[in-house]
Automatic annotation (TrEMBL):
This is Protein kinase domain-containing protein. Residues 78-392 form the Protein kinase domain. Keywords: ATP-binding, Kinase, Nucleotide-binding, Transferase. The keyword Kinase applies. Pfam families: PK_Tyr_Ser-Thr. CDD domains: STKc_IRAK (cd14066). SMART domains: S_TKc. InterPro entries: CR_Ser/Thr_kinase (IPR052059), Kinase-like_dom_sf (IPR011009), Prot_kinase_dom (IPR000719), Ser-Thr/Tyr_kinase_cat_dom (IPR001245), Ser/Thr_kinase_AS (IPR008271). It comes from the Eukaryota.
Length: 420
């Protein structure tokens, strides 16, 4: 197969401009039901060079391209079996192994129709051998290209051990490209929910192997990453969507916060609504859900819920036939009031944990989810409490938590969201 037969970017742009809706493929129509996609595969970086006139991050010197038909073939028409994860900014799909990628040094063409409003992401390998995750954002943002790339440059300059590294980005035509380091061990949500008895489990370790020490290290790492974007950079960044699935784990299981700063790339109304539809009920701070009032303390609330999840092994929201829907925050508060916090610790630990540490971490979680945001600690204080650098003075320091139980008639910003 001749590599020159693959259409360069300018021809892809032309197709987008000239193709009528009546000639759109059935595959494109299939994608309209999705708000965003993400998938992964390995490729060899080609020598295709972006011209000096293109708006591109200095860190991203090459754009690899393939056509939509190749993309469709590689994902088996975006079959559900290729889906490997889901996040606030997109579902994650795994590309099937095909001969196409085994013998061709192809350029990657990301074909995105302006009207589709899609988000794509892929896994790839740069020329230096570094495996990366590539997210391709549709032009949802009304920002100009220079303003958009300015935001990307700002985000890529933020470096911390507990933040996913943004290597760079590029804008060409109707889409924007972000390139991240790829995290080998998936996200924390899958790790916490996996079971060794599940024969279909593909994660690298499960609840029985998540020792107390590993849980402590993950919790501390997340707190360090949040403290950094909240208090150590200027201007600060409010994440908006802290949850287990947005915490990625590298090959050493070091936690990395993903998707920080992405909300700045989309209009306010899209960002807020996307938090609602991403299914993060249970993590959402009540003051943000009901009034649109967003501060760093909103992230602190979400971190508190996440900390309770890590210690207990329970989901933020669970459901059973007898009790119906129930919330971890409610459960933790009830156990705290009845002096039974130790019973909340994950039974899969089989007692292999330090009781004083478990109590301390659960109390920090409850401090972070207090209803009045002014009573919640900032992240640096929460971190000191977790490290036992600050003592809890008394139980009266913890007040009743706030909780958003549903989105019926919830007001977000200037929009009234009602269940249909």
């Amino acid at each position: 197969m001749d590599i020159e037969s693959f259409s360069p970017l300018r021809r892809v742009k032309k197709r987008i401009r000239t193709r009528s809706s009546s000639s759109s493929s059935s595959s494109v129509n299939k994608l309209f039901s999705y708000s965003c996609f993400s998938f992964k595969y390995c490729f060899s970086s080609s020598s295709y060079k972006i011209s000096a006139g293109d708006d591109c991050m200095p860190d991203l010197q090459n754009v690899n391209e393939f056509s939509f038909s190749e993309l469709e073939a590689a994902t088996n028409s975006f079959h559900p079996s290729t889906k490997i994860g889901e996040g606030g900014f997109g579902s994650v799909y795994k590309v099937q192994d095909t001969v196409l990628f085994s013998y061709l040094n192809l350029k990657l063409v990301v074909y995105v129709n302006d009207v589709c409003g899609l988000v794509f992401g892929v896994k790839g390998r740069l020329q230096d051998g570094q495996v990366v995750a590539v997210k391709v954002l549709s032009a949802e943002s009304k920002q100009g290209e220079r303003e958009f790339m300015s935001e990307i440059a700002s985000m890529s300059s933020i470096s911390h051990e507990n933040l996913v590294n943004l290597r760079g980005g590029c804008i060409n035509g109707p889409f924007r490209i972000l390139v991240y380091d790829y995290m080998e061990n998936g996200n924390l949500s899958r790790t916490l929910s996996s079971k060794s008895s599940d024969p279909h489990n593909t994660t690298t370790f499960d609840n029985k192997i998540i020792s107390w020490k590993v849980r402590l290290d993950i919790s501390i790492g997340i707190a360090q990453g949040l403290a950094h974007i909240h208090e150590e950079i200027n201007p600060c960044i409010v994440h908006r969507d802290i949850k287990a699935s947005n915490i990625l784990l590298d090959h050493k299981f070091t936690p990395k916060i993903s998707d920080f700063g992405l909300s700045k790339l989309f209009p306010e109304n899209i960002s807020r609504i996307s938090t609602r539809v991403a299914g993060t009920l249970g993590y959402l701070a009540p003051e943000y859900a009901f009034s649109g009032h967003l501060t760093r303390k909103s992230d602190v609330y979400s971190f508190g819920v996440l900390l309770l999840e890590i210690v207990s092994g329970r989901k933020a929201i669970d459901f059973d036939l007898e009790l119906g829907e129930h919330f971890l925050v409610d459960k933790a508060w009830d156990m705290y009031k009845n002096d039974m916090l130790l019973q909340l610790v994950d039974p899969l630990l089989e007692g292999n944990f330090a009781e004083a540490e478990a109590i301390r971490f659960l109390k920090v979680g409850l401090l972070c989810v207090q209803e009045k945001c002014g009573l919640r600690p900032n992240m640096s204080t929460a971190l000191k409490l977790m490290r036992n650098e600050i003592d809890f003075s008394s139980n009266k320091d913890i007040t009743k938590p706030g909780l958003v139980r549903d989105f019926m008639n919830v007001k977000i910003g200037q929009k009234q969201l009602q269940s249909s």
